[in-house]
Design brief:
- This protein is 0% helix and 17% strand.
- It has no helices and two strands.
């Protein structure tokens, strides 16, 4: 999705990652909602 030169980054952090075994992995699923408080018709949800 392209939002007119708008760039946002999201990083997921793992608690106690140093205690996990080598080669571990985890699947994460999330939804991002951007709310336009002036015009709700322009609010968007990404994911799901």
């Amino acid at each position: 999705m392209y939002l007119n030169s708008f760039t946002e980054s999201m990083y997921l952090n793992v608690a106690d990652a140093s205690k996990l075994s080598s080669g571990w992995s985890r699947y994460a699923e999330f939804t991002l909602t951007i709310v336009n408080q002036f015009n709700s018709d322009k609010s968007i949800t990404i994911g799901d």
